[in-house]
Design the sequence.
């Protein structure tokens, strides 16, 4: 166990991003999360808005107005974006120790043996509550609906590009139910594990 | 987080049973593993041998010699055994704090909020090596073959009775790759977690 990099995959609303940021702070490491969007935009030539739009919605995009256009172009755009994502993440890993949240970093870095792969999830009730707490009341939208939609998109995206099942414990070194264990506990646990070398 | 019971689901060869026994020793709790077989035998009226035979091979048994007999009886026998298993595990949980290894205890006790649900797994190489180390050389059998057969049986059994996917992180509070993290680390982590109340 000698890790340089920690990847955190997470369910929407589980607090996985917060755990990643707090963990990186405690360990004095950079944390890449939203920062990946601008890096991918720069690498691919797309605008940040389009990277965000295309980034985890594999089966739709709004760049093209007709169904035929979308069908023709979406696959090409997705591939271009995926290539940019791979390149950015592989380069970040080369630069030194860090925490990377989301973006299939666990699978993109699967050939490195200095990566601690973590998955953070929580029960629906905890997540729905946290979504409202963090993102505020959603105009006319039920937090459960938003969560389930996000789950579906994230799951589809992950499975499409990694060809492995989203949420399967066997893809990770450690998975944690943050609702049950608490975000602080998750941070402390991972901090201790990273330091055990 | 105030747990009385720890359930450990595990991949064959991952050392999950060893972790459970060691953890129970450290916490001064009873550990139920092979003991469940004789309890189920007593509860169901089957011999221990038949409990073992039927217990995790849902789609075959040798009690009946013809295919018609097997088809007619195996479902009934499986149900009887499952009922015995449920009863034994529910009663054990009522008796007090303990560690329970395998036997879908995580799902059988899903309605209790004092159960810490753990899944232990490891990479194939680690498990194949450990199978030979623990069970000795297998006469003419490849440890990988034995492991994959056991995986398949355990997976089928779990999914048939619990209607949830084997190895899905979201069914557990914590999942650990014992090959990566080490058995001692897993024991210490769970011990610390159990004591945090």
Sequence:
């Amino acid at each position: 166990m000698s890790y340089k990099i920690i990847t955190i995959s997470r369910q929407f609303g589980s607090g996985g991003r917060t755990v990643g940021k707090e963990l990186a702070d405690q360990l004095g490491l950079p944390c890449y999360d939203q920062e990946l969007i601008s890096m991918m935009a720069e690498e691919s030539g797309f605008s940040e808005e389009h990277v965000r739009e295309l980034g985890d919605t594999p089966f739709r995009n709004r760049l093209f107005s007709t169904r035929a256009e979308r069908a023709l172009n979406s696959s090409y755009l997705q591939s271009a974006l995926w290539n940019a994502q791979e390149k950015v993440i592989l380069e970040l890993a080369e630069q030194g120790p860090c925490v990377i949240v989301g973006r299939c970093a666990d699978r993109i870095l699967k050939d490195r043996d200095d990566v601690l792969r973590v998955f953070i999830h929580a029960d629906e009730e905890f997540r729905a509550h946290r979504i409202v707490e963090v993102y505020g009341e959603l105009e006319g939208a039920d937090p459960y609906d938003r969560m389930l939609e996000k789950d579906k998109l994230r799951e589809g995206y992950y499975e499409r590009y990694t060809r492995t099942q989203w949420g399967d414990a066997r893809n990770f070194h450690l998975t944690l139910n943050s609702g049950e264990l608490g975000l602080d506990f998750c941070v402390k646990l991972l901090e201790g594990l990273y330091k055990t070398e």
User: Anything to note?
Assistant: The CA atoms of residues 5 and 115 of chain B lie 5 Å apart. Chain B touches chain A through 21 residues (CB under 8 Å). Strands of chain B lie at 5-10, 31-32, 98-101, 115-121, 174-177. The mean pLDDT of chain B is 86.
